[in-house]
Amino acid sequence: MGPIEAVDLVRLTLKAVMIEEGREIKNLSQNQAWDKYGQCEVERWVRLGLIKKNKTGLGKTARMKYDALELEALDMASNRRTYVALVREQEAINELK
Questions:
Q1: DSSP percent split of the chain into helix, strand, coil, nearest 5
Q2: 62 to each of 47, 53, 58, 67, 83, how far by Cα in Å?
Q3: Average pLDDT over residues 20-48
Q4: pTM for the predicted model, two decimal places
Q5: What is d(CA 5, CA 61) in angstroms, rounded to the nearest whole number?
Q6: Residue 11: which of 85, 68, 72, 80 has the closest Cα?
Q7: Secondary structure of 64-83 in HEC code, one letter for each residue
Q8: Which 3 state secondary structure label does DSSP give 84?
Q9: Across residues 26-47, what is the average pLDDT?
Q10: What's the rounded Cα separation, in Å, for the pair 66 and 74?
């Protein structure tokens, strides 16, 4: 496990404890999830079956909720941030040549 993964594990554990103690909310509304993680990312995770929408009622007007801890874990597992950093690093190296 690399240093970034260890830090992410600590962050997830801390978030789980804070949710259990009631200091953080357990579920995010669809709009809150989209604001925090991006609509495209959340919809992609749902489409891939990585996370499920939880309806809070019946019918078309029911609110959608997502588990906050699952969203956080998916965000940490997303390699896009790492990929972008590697691409920028490679571009900087290429400019020095």
A1: 65, 10, 25
A2: 20, 11, 6, 16, 37
A3: 91
A4: 0.69
A5: 39
A6: 72
A7: EEEEHHHHHHHHHHCCHHHH
A8: helix
A9: 92
A10: 12
- The maximal CA–CA distance of the chain, rounded, in angstroms, is 61
- Compute CA distances 81 → 12, 24, 64, 88, whole Å: 18, 25, 27, 11
Residue that is written with structure tokens 């997303």 in the block: 78
User: How confident is the prediction for the chain on average, in pLDDT?
Assistant: 82
Closest CA relative to residue 13, chosen from 63, 69, 68: 69
User: Which two tokens mark 76?
Assistant: 């940490």
The torsion of the CA quartet 73, 23, 38, 80, rounded to 10 degrees, works out to -30
